[in-house]
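Escalation from tier 1.

The customer reports that the assembly of three entities below gives different structure tokens on two consecutive runs. Tier 1 could not reproduce it. I'm attaching the input and our single run for tier 2 to review.
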Amino acid sequence: MANVLEVRNLKAYYLMNYFGVQREVRAVDDITMSIGRNEVYGIAGESSSGKTSFIKVLAAAIRPPLRVVGGSATYDFGGGIEVDVTAARDEDIEAIRWRHLSYIMQGSMSVLNPLRRVGKIFEDFASRPLGLSGPAFRQVVVDHLGRLKLPPSVLNAYPHELSGGMRQRVTIGLATVCKPQFIIADEPTTALDVVVQKDVLSLIKSLQVEMGSSIVFVTHDMSVHANIADRIGIIYAGRLVEEGPTRQMFTAPRHPYTAHLVASLPRIGDMARRPALEGRPPSLAAPPQGCRFHPRCPLAVEKCKTEVPPLATIGPGHRTACWRADDVRPLVGAEAAVHA
Amino acid sequence: MFSVFRDLVRYNLEFAIGLVLLFAVVIFSCLSFFSPVDPSMVYRVVPDQPPNLDYWFGTNSRGQDMFWQLSFAFRNSLTFGVTVAILSRIISIVVGLAAGYLGGWVDRVLMFVNDIFVAIPIFPILILFYLVMKTGSNSFVLAILMACFGWPFDARLIRSVALGLRYREFTRQAVFAGMSPLRIMWEEHLPYVMPIIFSTAMANMIWAIGLEVTLAVLGFTNLNIPTIGTTLYWANNHSALVVGTWWWIVIPVAIVVIMFLGLFLLAVSLNEYIDPRSRLRRMGA
Amino acid sequence: MSMLLEVRDVSKVFHTGGLLAPQAVHAVSHVDFAISADKPEIFTIIGESGSGKTTLARMILGLEQPSSGTIAFDGKSLAQASGGERLKFMAAVQPVFQNPFEAFNPLKKVDRYLESTARRFLGLKHKAAMATAMDEALQKVGLSLAEVQGRFSHELSGGQLQRVAIARALIPNPRLLIADEPVSMVDASLRMAIVNLLRSLRDDFGVSVIYITHDLATAYYISDRLIIMQKGKVVETGPARVVLDAPEHAYSRLLRSAVLDTADAGDGNLRTDPELAALAARVASQTGRLEARADGRSVRVY
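Tier 1 run:
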């Protein structure tokens, strides 16, 4: 398999039954995509779009009430290691966790146990996957910390003794010390200050280039995607609505939602009035019929209300799910002037 | 309200069983309102009769019909337990919420008083109370006294929840929305405290009834009023197990077990239902 | 020209540590600015975490007392305000907090805060009058009472909740809104609705806004004037576009360079100038003084 991750028709729902109230929340509703080696794939979407649930499935963190009801998500880490996380046994997942597949989560403090020193936390996570212990292990960790510009003294500190930026770097270090082939980053820079955010992003990018890993980078902030992602996938209401190379997604989006996401970003030096997206994302328990974006879409026609547009390829590496893909124009900026 | 009840009965087995058990005991004790006999009279019927068709629970050595006797006993004990639980909840909620939310010197004074009450040994005081009052003591005053001792631990629990809530952002917003501290404590914070109140109320009831039984068996309450404890006192006094009138002890104990079991199951199942976190999950948050 | 809010040489020092090893944290040092009552404006305070911007906001709202300096609203100092005057002050200066999900009690419906504000600050007693006041305020933010009534906080999106919070703050017809990072916890795609709303509050309803943020792009978009704070000290201040188009102080330049731009999307340009970062770190501990410039800004020089 050329790709490190192949997702086919993945469906994951929350099935809940409390005191007679049954709810079926279709968090991931038929997603098909793939991620190649040595690639940064950005996933963009609003909160409650289902992107977090999608990431949970990819990270093999599927716990009730979240259940995979269809499809597959298969990893190929090379060297014959292939795992379908929707059907794998616990031992198989334990074998790949952290060694081939790791994650960087939002909010570094909650990942790091406040009662354990950083060195011990590294041991907890990485000693077994690396198969090392004692001085050999410590040496590997110290070398890795050096790449992150962290001094070895960090290993003796408790998490609360470090600054926010340093903690996030420790979290990144934890996720990358085993040199995994696939890293899932879930909003790793969202709560950080601007200067620290740029630092952290630059660090993630340089590590990725050095290790040749693939990263799935999830955030709702398109300006982060603009600077770190090679390809971007937009998730709306549990479905993938557009996917393409970064530059094209910003200069020539082919889905009205993407066009809005891109246009709503304020830029220093540009005082033009920016459009705001009206309405709210649909409830995943009762999504609209047909195209799920149609209640908020400025280009919606009758067909959109009843028929679900398929995710169709409209260019090299560029897919979109819109009946009126050809009519989509960038909304603001120089590109808008060109197309107007 | 009714739909909540119906849902609980239908979907929560613990609640249903607890309800059935407690209901049985409550109905039994309500029968005392229709009793044809006066419970304080003795030697009205043939003594020491085992349970038979005339006397369902038999009769005791004092010549009383056990069925009606126990009916009164459970009614008195249940009322007693509920009174103590309600009174002590009121005190612990007021103290806990005020200390947690208002802080400062209010907190310090209230917790000082709280710690004093934790340290005072309750048993000697109750005995002293009986010795002073003798037959003048009635259950209501005893209930008030017990309520005064039953609140400190729970007040601290409530206070810690209130402390956490004080720094949440919706409390600040409520302040800027012009809500008075009283309104904030009552409307914003009380719902978070409900699970503690509920489970501790049940525990409190069990504790109060148990303490009353202890006092009565030792002879430190007004023995003319039929309660579970006084029943056991008289049974012991007449050496019931030795003489062979086993139904005098076994039947009240069996009903007590059923009652406590019912209370416990109700508390546990309602607790899960009231807990804000599970409520939020049900609402779909 | 009368002043709506005057912050004169305000400092706040927090004392930590015990008797034998006392430590003083200078959260805010000698901040000085004023907002005019005649012309509504959006005044932005820019700073990262630890810059003292939240402490400053809390002092303006009356939640903390300054260690030195004065804060005066409409010419009256806050420190000596009586009960009735505090109420008038609370009606005139309302906050909007950062986390819209935390700002509402998840177990209660959201409209009760609106109702309470209407009752307390407008003195309304009848349901109908309160409903009208609530609906008016909600219309100003682009919502309506019908949409919001009876809803719990988890039924609305972050953007909607924040708008409800702003509507609540608008009910007593305040003259000044203190918005502490109102969009940082809202999805990037929903931010513009709130930011545009703040702009319209100034333009259409004459409400001044103190907008606290670390996001320079939105600050550029809506501010009239701004101050940039670093470790409790003001390092640069002046008209928004003037300062952000060409920042002078090292820290301002560092912030400006850290903003992620979409202009060269896909190029992945993430380098930060290490000399600039070092310079900004160096001046953080120095004091210096503010010097005025010809184009209306003031810069801290050392």
